[in-house]
Design brief:
Low-confidence stretches of chain A: none
Shape of chain A: globular
Number of strands of chain A: 3
Radius of gyration of chain A: 23 Å
Structural class of chain A: mainly alpha
CATH class of the largest domain in chain A: Mainly Alpha
Mean pLDDT of chain A: 96
Strand content of chain A: under 5%
Order of helices and strands of chain A: HHHHHHHHHEEEHHHHHHHHHHH
Oligomer: homodimer
CATH architecture of the largest domain in chain A: Orthogonal Bundle
Helix content of chain A: 55-70%
Distance between the termini of chain A: 69 Å
């Protein structure tokens, strides 16, 4: 095989894998939104076959040989092609290490466990779920050994969402974040309450589309549908969809989920179309991706300036006033209240929910903690960090779906995303002045979105998270910026 | 390769091809219904890659060798597996005969031509389109030679939609249908007109879903969305979708398109789930498929009995009376009026539109007629058979999209479907008595749908069209039944 043949074969496989992933993305989105219910069983089988095909395609010996040939003459590759090869080889080597039968057994196990988790949560029955969770933990520990790690087994899990992320890097960051947050908790004072209102789904949808347009999300390159669990789905260039859920008596729930998913959506919409058909259309890391969703949900979406501009229109589209006064609204949507449920947490206490999960995941992988002791450890940490103790498993260890799906190592992305968002905001303000002014006009939002696009989004996975952080913010992840940001906000709210 | 290995490999390839086809079906449906407009370019590329993958998979030498191994010991295969092999080998041999570059060039050409056809039709400009059509004709003629045929080149085109269908079989059928129809044309008398009403899309949708449910289409295994050109899309077992288009001032248009697509939908919903993941989930021929859509659209959907039961509810859901009296409604929806546009034609003259297209297609493939003479031939035949002459190309030779997409040989399916529908109705009535009584109750409809399912739908492509016709109707396609049926209807209408 000549180098040119290898290159052509490599690019063809990339395009095939991209097309299969695109089909899987649409099939999954459709399954969660509009698929008729009787299609579930066949859809699962078709998705399984397609995913198996992607796995086969990207771990074949032939593909490995093609990449070896390219790696022998990297000087003949462009910088972009080198990065494509680097990422493809990384995945190849990682996936090759897992025996096919273990991978398949794990897929079947997590698919079942996710279903069992829902039932266990509904019935508040941890005992029935614990053995399944233990099996997943056992597999995941085994995978960590197959994958290998420099320092701690948990690092092998973190790598799934950011190849370069290490426990040793997160530990001091979270330690500082924990102490800073606990100090600030005392600043919370009396909270204001909003009137109880009911907003029908079709009106909430109009609000959602208004907010998406306002934040620069292109509704001609995406759409807004409903799902049980909101998510963003990038199908291919020109088609990145967001979803939400409408609770008629909780209109704020969909407002903030739309702003959050809209942030993910903006990212995917603004990846350079030149990267279409390659593995560089992926995001560079989940921390950076979450930084964009949390930025729009919180930094912009919970700012006074944003609501001074948009509250009136949102009230009007809702058909009822969510609140008459932007300042009161601002105080209400930023109320700090230590609580049990992560996805309902305020911006300050949210990170504590993440740190607890991070510490438990470390304990599972690095210290041999098993599923039977997780509920008590969970409760004890909530008591220690947040001063609240779950009364049920459903509001404790069973609250998130991640572990039942075998996703260990994802949680840190949420908190790291919050920290990066504050650093990005700081970097933007250094160049263009206060965000407050910009989020009040379409031109200002356009400037902001374009800044994000030029500095972050367009690269897809072409850059590493570290290079982006250092180039844009001058340093890697540093909790100082978030702590300063949230301290300032608390002063405005209370 | 042992026989057992070959069998496993064959079934795996079937499942892969099925999954890819399923993904292509969903991507196409999505493209036509809800995809954001900016996704078009990437979607086309992804679809192209997936279709190329299906072609590669089902024409690979390895797959050919696998099938050869199976064909050496057919006694070891079940009847179902033998039929799978027969169809797979048929497609394999057919596709293998076209050089890959010719196939690709043809795909690109028809994709462009379809776009150019739309523009040409809008501008009534045949001159600009004619050279493109000629290129498509040249390719198709070349394909016919590659594919081969026993008698006439046009047979190679017909085979795409029914492997066993021959010009020699259709000629006498259409000849009898033509003379019978021309005789009956004189029976048409004065027509009644319906009031002009406007029904907003959301109400038309409610009507559509009501009718789909009434005809036994399972809305939990499908759905109703809108598209420019209505179609039915079977994605996989448990998910067969139908589409329609709402013209506010022409509510009948979507009513009959829903009944038509609902007929296709019922068929695909009722294919045995055991055939999932194989090439037997396809329909056996387009004539039989169209027989089911035309059966529900016309035999049931334009019957007095059906509207005696449903007109009141449809009026109510429409928010305005389409007509107050079922008998008047029946006369109006069955009015015979020779006209220029196929898709607006009544049940009697519809077949003449098809016969004209069939004769032109034969002339193209068997007699060397080229694109430059088609408009005049078209006009002359309309004048001769229907007594009307198109004043524009848009209402003449440019009216249908089929040729621009390279689909020659499809048109006969529509008329043959009408004939089969009448034969099926006759066979059903012999067993269960008059259709009229059955279509007036949910139990009667259930009996009818179940009869169709047991006798036709469940087989998918497991049976040949001929075997189905002979088993269910006692003979192959015979126009007598349709001519008797339509003569009786004309007597009721006029």
């Amino acid at each position: 095989m000549t180098f040119d043949q290898a290159k052509e074969s490599f690019l063809t496989t990339q395009r095939q894998a991209y097309s299969f992933l695109s089909a899987v993305a649409l099939m999954y989105w459709d399954l969660q939104t509009i698929m008729p219910p009787k299609g579930v069983s066949s859809r699962s089988q078709v998705l399984g076959t397609l995913q198996g095909e992607i796995f086969r395609l990207t771990t074949s010996d032939a593909y490995g040989a093609v990449m070896d040939t390219l790696a022998e003459a990297p000087e003949k590759l462009s910088a972009r092609e080198k990065r494509m090869l680097e990422l493809a080889q990384w995945s190849y080597n990682r996936n090759k290490k897992i025996p096919a039968d273990a991978y398949e057994a794990f897929s079947v196990l997590t698919a079942q466990a996710n279903h069992l988790w829902k039932g266990a949560k509904e019935k508040n029955d941890y005992a029935s779920f614990s053995p399944h969770l233990q099996k997943i933990i056992d597999y995941a520990r085994q995978f960590a050994e197959y994958w290998g790690y420099a320092d701690k087994p948990y690092d092998a899990m973190l790598a799934e969402y950011d190849p370069a992320l290490l426990t040793a890097q997160i530990d001091p960051i979270f330690s500082q974040l924990l102490s800073g947050t606990r100090k600030l908790l005392s600043r919370a004072g009396e909270n204001v309450a909003l009137p109880n209102v009911t907003v029908p789904p079709e009106r909430q949808k109009a609000v959602g589309e208004y907010l998406l347009a306002a934040m620069g999300y292109d509704l001609d390159a995406g759409n807004l549908f409903t799902t049980e669990h909101p998510f963003t789905c990038s199908i291919h260039s020109g088609d990145t969809r967001v979803t939400t859920k409408y609770h008629p008596t909780q209109p704020l729930s969909s407002i903030f989920s739309v702003l959050h998913e809209g942030g993910h959506g903006l990212y995917d919409q603004n990846v350079s179309p030149e990267l279409d058909g390659t593995n560089l259309r992926d995001s560079l890391s989940m921390s950076i991706h979450e930084s964009q969703s949390r930025f729009w949900e919180n930094t912009v979406g919970r700012s006074l300036a944003f609501w001074e501009t948009h509250l009136e229109k949102v009230n009007q589209l809702s058909g009822v006033a969510l609140c008459d006064d932007p300042k009161t609204f601002f105080r209400a949507i930023n109320a700090v209240r230590p609580s049990l449920i992560r996805i309902e947490a305020d911006e300050l206490t949210y990170n504590l929910h993440i740190i607890i999960r991070y510490e438990l995941e470390k304990a599972i992988f690095n210290d041999g903690v098993n599923s039977d002791t997780l509920p008590e450890l969970w409760a004890a940490k909530y008591e220690e960090y947040l001063g609240v103790r779950p009364k049920t498993y459903a509001e404790g260890v069973l609250q998130d779906s991640h572990w039942s799906g075998g996703s260990f190592g994802y949680f840190p992305s949420y908190a790291l995303g919050n920290l990066c968002a504050a650093q990005f905001a700081n970097a933007f303000e250094k160049q263009h002045g206060s965000l407050s002014g910009h989020v009040q006009t379409p031109e200002g939002i356009a400037l902001l979105v374009n800044w994000q696009k030029e500095n972050i989004h367009r690269y897809g996975a072409e850059e590493t998270p570290r290079r982006i952080m250092e180039r844009v913010c001058g340093e890697n992840i540093n909790p100082d910026f978030f702590l300063q940001y949230i301290e300032k906000k608390l002063a405005e709210v209370y």
